[in-house]
Design a protein that fits this description.
Blueprint: H1 3-9, E1 30-34, H2 38-49, E2 53-57, E3 73-74, H3 85-103, E4 109-117, E5 125-134, H4 136-146, E6 149-150, E7 157-161, E8 163-168, E9 171-176, E10 178-181, E11 199-209, E12 220-222, E13 226-227, E14 231-233, E15 236-242, E16 246-247, H5 256-269, E17 278-288, E18 295-300, H6 302-308, E19 326-334, H7 340-356, H8 364-370, H9 374-381
Parallel strand pairs: 1-2, 1-10, 2-6, 4-12, 10-19
Antiparallel strand pairs: 3-5, 4-5, 7-8, 8-9, 11-15, 11-16, 11-17, 12-13, 13-15, 14-15, 18-19
Bound molecules: flavin-adenine dinucleotide.
Length: 384
């Protein structure tokens, strides 16, 4: 049982009212998920399995076509100390991700077994038998069968009068009891979420010809960059390596410089690999928060928050604060950064627990470290 459940049973106020859990939503209610990347699909599935009617609205013609659209994704174990909240979070995400993707079927794993180089310049490495390389296209196919997804719908605004009303331009698209925003870097494109500090970070991956299969890694290699084992990509044996990292850059064109950077980093992991022919690549935009933790939870009403907690600059014991004033039934799962495939299944569980009022799948402290309002609270504590 989590701390928060225990607090409720004892009728004691939570320690930090600004992170108070939102009022649970009745089972059977309608939930609109905006964005059909891996965050939207895992949150949508977790909510559906918790008894809600979920519809996912996706701008593109297929889901998982942007950051989640690479031909391969790595489940890369974090070595951050578990004394930190980040370490605790990413440690738990790995267990949940392995369990989740395994439950979708063996075909989801392109390969298992991962060699993690703890220091790029040396032979120091750790072997993990279970993680490895997963196939986002296969995950998309399987999850699309399980969920109600409306493609080619770009939600541009929503208003709240008893229910949420979603619009594409001036066209009404749907009504819903709750909205979960999963639009990656675009999740801040609405007035209630424009305060979320999301930074777009461009990433490019490089495809290398692996038809000649000698002298290639049989396991996934991870260091500063990664190299997948060879797999069949549209009829051609391919290895994928990457990914480049350009902050505040949303240009989507493939760059020769990024390929060269990827090959240089790959060469450290597997000398000789950069002599292979480049057969292509792909570029997409990740969403990062300033503290590099994802953003998952209820959305604060910014004005009311600032009014309710302005005295926090004098310390948390200054007065009795009211429970968090949230925008009613508006949530977000975004800021998944460079490890979205690993974190999305656990974040989906967390979203379902928050909306349904169930026990949290993470500790209270980890929940708070993911809370969308943590940036507002940090600023208020500094008197900003
Ligand atoms: C080059 C690269 C390599 C990566 N490699 C790995 C890896 O190996 N392992 C790993 O775990 N992670 C990796 N990542 C990170 C991972 O891909 C992301 O963290 C993850 O895909 C983010 O998922 P998302 O659903 O939040 O965002 P996205 O996949 O970007 O999904 C957001 C979706 O929302 C839709 N949308 C946005 N606004 C609207 C709107 N208003 N209406 C309707 N739809 C909307 C978009 O069209 C999009 O489909 C990589 C990322 C990049 C860019």
């Amino acid at each position: 049982m989590t701390n928060i459940t225990a607090q409720r049973q004892n009728n004691q106020p939570p320690a930090k009212p600004w992170f108070h859990r939102p009022v649970p939503l009745e089972k059977g209610s309608r939930i609109a998920v905006i964005g059909g990347g891996i965050a939207g699909l895992t949150a949508g599935l977790a909510l559906q399995e918790n008894g809600y009617h979920v519809t996912i609205f996706e701008h593109d013609h297929v889901p998982m076509n942007r950051a989640s659209g690479n031909p391969a994704g790595i489940l890369d174990p974090s070595l951050t100390s578990r004394e930190s909240l980040e370490g605790q979070f990413y440690h738990t995400t790995m267990f949940r991700a392995l369990d989740f993707y395994s439950s979708l079927g063996r075909q989801v794993f392109l390969s298992r077994g991962l060699l993690k180089f703890t220091d790029d310049s040396s032979d120091d490495n750790l072997y993990f038998p279970d993680p490895g390389t997963i196939s986002p296209p296969k995950i998309r196919d399987i999850l699309s069968q399980k969920l109600r997804i409306k493609n080619n719908v770009n939600i541009t605004s929503f208003t709240h009068t008893q229910k949420w009303h979603l619009f594409e331009g001036d066209k009404p698209r749907a009504t819903a009891d709750a909205i979960v925003l999963c639009g990656g870097p675009l999740a801040r494109g609405f007035s209630p979420t424009d305060h979320l500090p999301l930074e777009p970070v461009r990433g490019q991956i490089t495809y290398l010809n692996a038809e000649k299969n000698d002298d290639l890694p049989r396991k996934t290699l991870c260091g500063k960059s990664y190299i997948t084992p060879a797999f069949d990509m549209n009829g051609q044996m391919t290895i994928v390596t990457g990914a480049s990292f350009s902050r505040n850059d949303t240009d989507m064109s493939l760059r020769g410089d990024d390929h060269r950077e990827n090959l240089g980093n790959a060469e450290i992991l597997w000398p000789g690999i950069s002599k292979r022919d480049i057969t292509g690549g792909r570029c997409a935009i990740r969403a990062y928060s300033p503290d590099h933790m994802p953003i998952c939870g209820p959305i604060a009403d910014q004005e009311q928050y600032q009014a309710a907690y302005k005295m926090l600059k004098h310390g948390p014991k200054h007065q009795n604060f009211i429970p968090a004033p949230y925008v009613p039934n508006l949530y977000a799962v975004t800021g998944l950064g460079a490890r979205g495939f690993m974190s999305a299944p656990l974040l989906g569980d967390l979203m379902a627990a928050l909306i349904s009022g169930d026990a949290l799948p993470v500790t209270q402290a980890v929940y708070e470290s993911l809370h969308p309002a943590r940036f507002l609270i940090r600023a208020l504590k500094k008197g900003k």
